[in-house]
Write a structure and sequence with these properties.
This protein is α/β, with parallel strands linked by helices. It contains 16 helices and 13 strands. It folds into 2 domains: 192 residues, Rossmann fold; 169 residues, 3-Layer(aba) Sandwich (Rossmann fold). GO terms for molecular function: hydrolase activity, acting on glycosyl bonds.
């Protein structure tokens, strides 16, 4: 029996890891050790560890890394706490493989601890580029620490190989977030109105805006201009806002969102954490997904939704033609919103192809992990192109 430790640090990465975890649990000779950390343990961010338990998963550990504050020093302190606590965890509970996803700072510390303890790492969503966030550097560093790689597109797979990873260990599986859309029974419009406690408007926009973690000044400017543009839209449009990640400079965004709510009281609805089912169900029933979240780049086009991507945070990601990019200038944002809300743009969405897979990533990821564990993992060597 081989043990795969899966670490989740946020509501977002848990939703993406859900189906790979389920697929691993279906394998007879694999034991899954699931660990919750990061904002899952934070009251401010909805204490989402309860959502994991509600889904029926058994947690092996709940590791609080004491997330408080949004200044660079606060983030470094959290990373240090995570490094220390996960080192202790891996000393007592040594898995055969660590499975992680994405590019967050707390997962970087988890991977560092595993690397020093000589625990092989499997990484999902490598090879991508997001020039407006420090996540970009973290993601590439995780690639170099990892043994197995699961990319969301073929171009990202080639980029991982370009970084010196042996092609036989790099697999294009598609994005596991699409598995949720394909396999979950999403809530109806009336069910969502009951869950959210409000009725949908004539037009509706799902909004998620995260910090540009390379610059506080740019974060404030882009956020201010984005919400100023939203305010210019007519009263028959409502906004459903999910709160930003626990990233550097996130408090600036919270302040701007709360002020926006005061000015647009009757048509603005704010949620700390919706969970995957309600988030994707909400996405299904809105007309536009707007902001700078990766879910707008990856999941929304698979659901045939119009997307407005604002500013620098997601710069560099491959996108489908569902997505319109604008810089963080108020008038440009407003004009782009008018364009993608128009009947002409909305009518062509169903015919546009999605590019991040077919919604079957989970079983493929689990299968490749199983094969690697059963055949044995050799020492990594640099692959020269």
């Amino acid at each position: 029996m081989k043990t795969v430790c899966v670490v989740t640090g946020t509501r977002a990465d848990y939703g993406l890891l859900y189906w790979p975890i389920k697929a691993l649990l279906d394998l007879k000779d694999i034991r899954v050790s699931l660990v919750a950390t990061g904002t899952h343990m934070s009251e401010k961010h909805g204490y989402t560890v309860n959502a994991i338990k509600k889904d029926g998963f058994q947690l092996d550990a709940e590791i609080d890394i004491e997330i408080h504050g949004d200044r660079p020093g606060d983030i470094v302190r959290v990373m240090a706490v995570a490094l220390n606590k996960f080192s202790t965890y891996f000393e007592k509970n040594r898995p055969d493989l660590l499975l992680i996803l994405g590019d967050r700072y707390e997962i970087f510390s988890v991977a560092q601890a595993a690397m020093v303890h000589n625990i092989p790492i499997a990484h999902i969503h490598g090879g991508e580029i997001t020039e407006g966030a420090i996540d970009d550097s973290i993601r590439h560093a995780l690639t170099k620490m990892s043994y197995l790689h699961f990319s969301s597109t073929e171009e990202y797979r080639k980029r991982i190989i370009q970084m010196g990873e042996e092609p036989g260990r790099v697999f294009c599986t598609g994005a596991p977030g699409l598995d949720n859309i394909k396999k979950l029974t999403l809530l109806s419009k009336s069910e969502m109105e009951k869950e959210l406690g409000c009725a949908f408007n004539e037009k509706n926009i799902l909004v998620t805006f995260h910090p540009v973690t390379i610059s506080e000044e740019q974060t404030i400017k882009e956020t201010t201009n984005f919400f100023s543009a939203l305010s210019k839209l007519p009263a028959n449009i409502s906004f459903y806002i999910t709160m930003p990640n626990a990233d550097t400079y996130s408090e600036n965004i919270l302040t701007i969102i709360n002020e926006f709510k005061k000015q647009n009281l009757n048509r603005t609805h704010i949620f700390t954490s919706l969970g995957q089912l309600k988030y994707l169900s909400l996405m299904k029933h809105v007309d536009v997904v707007a902001g700078n979240s990766s879910s707008g780049i990856i999941e929304a086009p698979f659901m045939k939704k119009a997307v407005l991507d604002v500013g620098a945070r997601q710069k560099g990601r491959i996108t489908s033609t569902h997505v319109v990019h604008v810089q963080g200038v108020t008038q440009d944002i407003y004009q782009a919103l008018v364009k993608i809300l128009s009947d002409d743009f909305q009518k062509k969405l169903d015919s546009l192809p999605s590019i991040y897979g077919d919604g079957e990533a989970g079983p493929v990821i689990a299968g490749k992990i199983h094969d690697a564990l059963m055949t044995g993992m050799k020492t990594k060597s640099f692959f020269n192109l």
